[in-house]
Amino acid sequence: MTGGASQAAASRAVPPQEGPARPALLLVEDSDTQALRIRRMLESHGFAVTRVASGEAALDSLDGRIPDLVVADYHLPGMNGGQMARQLRMSAVTRMIPVLMLTEGGEPGLEREGLESGADAYVPKSADPDLIVFRIRALLREGAGALLRDGAGARDGMFRRARILIVGGDGTRDRDVTSLAALMRSDGHEVTVAHQPMSMDRQDWFEAAREPDCVVVDLVSDAFDGIAFCRELDDVRQEVVVAGGVPPRILGLSGGQALRGVFSARAFEAGVDDLVADDVEPDVLALRIRALVRRKLLQDEARRVDQERQAREIAVETARAEAASIASKASLAEALEQANAELADANRKLIETQGKLIQTAKMASLGELVAGIAHEINNPLAFILAHKDTVARLLARVIADEERDAAPADAGHHAALMKCRDRVESMNLGLRRIQNLVLNLRKFSRLEEGQFQVIDVPEALETVLALLGQKFGSEIVVERDYRAPDRLYCQSALLNQVLMNIISNAADAIQSMSDAGPARGMIRIGTELRDGEAGRTYVFTVMDNGPGIPPDLKERIFEPFFTTKPVGAGTGLGLAIAYGVVQAHRGTISITDAPRSADGAAAGGTVFTVSVPWQPHLAAMADSTALPAGEHA
């Protein structure tokens, strides 16, 4: 095929592409004339070309964008094309970028050296331009370019050259260290020279952007003890490992003492990974350092891959969980709606559970506090009651003796005794009230809230009313209508928390009407048995003549932390806890408006109805066999 025909065939095979889909090529060419010629030729065939003049500049450009393919001249100033290709192959980010090597020379072994360094193809610059284009397209067809282009946005800035730190070179050894630094720079590494150990910042080892990959230490320097310094470096490496990083490698330069008995053993014992004599060939030294760096970078890559694997496993598990929750949905819209509903439900349950835990902890603390206070009051109260009876008996005896005396010695003295007797009787009334209060507190502090047991309903309700008596005052009258059996198999929380919260809220609602003028409040508490489809239920009703609950708030009244009370007057947890307790009984709780009065006018107020299953057989079993708490149907 002639040159014109082949060029036309190449153009027809793949026409020039426009827009972001054009393959991105990085051209590395130091000659401006050659670069212009090659660039025009490639752009005419639909490639987007970026040109740099050196291998170092090419590596630096990879921080900005990963190209689809690299076209490089082998003979470059400083780092040659083979060394640049070797750097690309050392990084996981650029390892799969195809490299096409160009050269004008025909030196024997040049193609072999280029391919061994990591190039994918070797083409002379004097070759037909169509051949170069065909080779580029063949390399791009392998798919590496498309793969990297798709992931380039996520991998920007991940490529870096290996970092070499050389410690030493002060005095007579300066020339050797300078030559070594130049050799490493020509090989594409970033090289830093620290003539003294104290000039090295050890904190860099813990920062990914500045940590060295290999530390070359002059072990025979006249300025410092190389072996001792390597021990310090090894200690720092252990800290890097503990911090979760990959420690750098240490290579020791040993003058003429390498591999000689005691010195070699001391060096490796101090933490040196490799030991090289000064008389080694520069190429061999570069290979030794390259091997250490390669192991370090491979460890970095293995660590990154492991982190990505763990992230993928977590993502897979998350995806499986999400897929399981929406597997029954027929469409994507329904699945999304279901997922949102589940998330909202989980959040609601979390808030509700948190509120219940807070309320439970408060009730437990309150119960312990109440029990402790009742106990502390009961002891001195029993002492006072016992001695009060003694005082009353003695006082009655003195009064009786004086009454038998026909002529009392002193009428004033007799009057004082009678007054003392009246005061003792008054004290007796007060002490008995305190005794009843202590008894109610002790009943309330029995915090077996989660245990099912037989509860005496009227007694428990009277205990609740006694504890709320101060809130009722003289403005609120409590009416009782107990029609259901006295004994109910339930949790004590049903009465100590649920009904107490409902009755307390009713009192608060009535008292909130005091701004409109004095009004006589009423709270009616009733119990009864009702028949239903699921069987008989034990029903509690609490009705008040307060202001009532607006219709738009009834649906939210059982939400945790929702309250209509002023700030600081309520937590919004009382009815949420009540709802949970009733649910634990497999019962229901509902809110309705109070019935109209006899003349048909709206009476105002609210009726709370709590229904729980009526299970008299369990109550009988609990009485006869002492059923352990919590074993219920």
UniProtKB/TrEMBL annotation:
Point out the coiled-coil segments of this chain. 329-356
| Zinc is among the record's keywords | no
Q: What are the recorded GO MF terms, alphabetically?
A: phosphorelay sensor kinase activity
What SMART domains does this protein's entry cite? HATPase_c, HisKA, REC
Q: Which Pfam families match?
A: HATPase_c, Response_reg
Query: Could you tell me the superkingdom of the organism this chain comes from?
Result: Bacteria
Q: Which residues carry this modification: 4-aspartylphosphate?
A: D73, D218
**Methyltransferase listed as a keyword:** no
Q: What is its EC number?
A: 2.7.13.3
Q: Which reaction does it catalyse?
A: ATP + protein L-histidine = ADP + protein N-phospho-L-histidine
Query: SUPFAM superfamilies recorded for this chain?
Result: ATPase domain of HSP90 chaperone/DNA topoisomerase II/histidine kinase, CheY-like, Homodimeric domain of signal transducing histidine kinase
Region of interest (Disordered), ranges: 1-23
Keywords tagged on the record: Coiled coil, Phosphoprotein
Q: What is this protein called?
A: histidine kinase
The record lists the organism as Gluconacetobacter diazotrophicus
- Recite the lineage of the species: Bacteria, Pseudomonadati, Pseudomonadota, Alphaproteobacteria, Acetobacterales
